[in-house]
Amino acid sequence: MQIKILDTVFAICKVHDLSKVNLRDEFYFLGKTDEELSLVCGIDSIPENVTACDKGWRAFRIQGELDFSLVGILSRIASLLAENNISIFVISTYNTDYILIKTAHFEDAVNILKHNGYIIV
Predict the structure, then answer these.
(1) Residue ranges of the alpha helices (H) in 4-102?
(2) Is 70 exceeded by the pLDDT of residue 56?
(3) Is 109 exposed, middle or buried (0-12, 13-18, 19+ CB in 10 A)?
């Protein structure tokens, strides 16, 4: 399975509203529930109206479009990293999954995945 490293350094934020979010960025992810409005964006695009923010996340994505019937892809990656005490933040889209890891642990995570047969592109 191929994994593509993204060049962007991300922040995971809570925002008051969408008025200051740059919706033209190459990468951003929004999540809204009855309790919060979350934004994942590049650190250069953190809006002024954040109420909480955690900076310094790197990301990779599972390459290709994943069929909804596939089982265990994310579980295997999460388990390998958890066994090595590396926590993750996951975003799933219609096509694939994005795995965010704190910058301090990112290279270790990539090496673990390489060692376990993943192809890094």
Answers:
(1) 73-83
(2) yes
(3) buried
Q: Which residues pair with 37 in a beta bridge?
A: 32
Interatomic CA distance for residues 110 and 21, integer angstroms? 30
Cα–Cα distance between 58 and 6 in angstroms, integer? 7
- pLDDT computed for residue 71 by the predictor: 44
Tell me which of 2.40.480.10, 3.30.1490.100, 3.30.2130.10, 3.40.50.300 is the CATH number of domain 2-120. Answer: 3.30.2130.10
Residue 38 contacts residue 5 (beta carbons within 8 Å): no
Longest dimension (CA), the chain: 44
Tokens of 46: 């953190």
Structure tokens that stand for 17 in this block:
């509203």
Nearest Cα residue to 57 out of 77, 43, 37 = 43
| pLDDT value at residue 65 | 54
Burial code of 74-99, b = ≥16 C-beta within 10 A, e = fewer? beebbebbeeeebebeebeeeebbbb
Q: Tell me the residue length of the chain.
A: 121
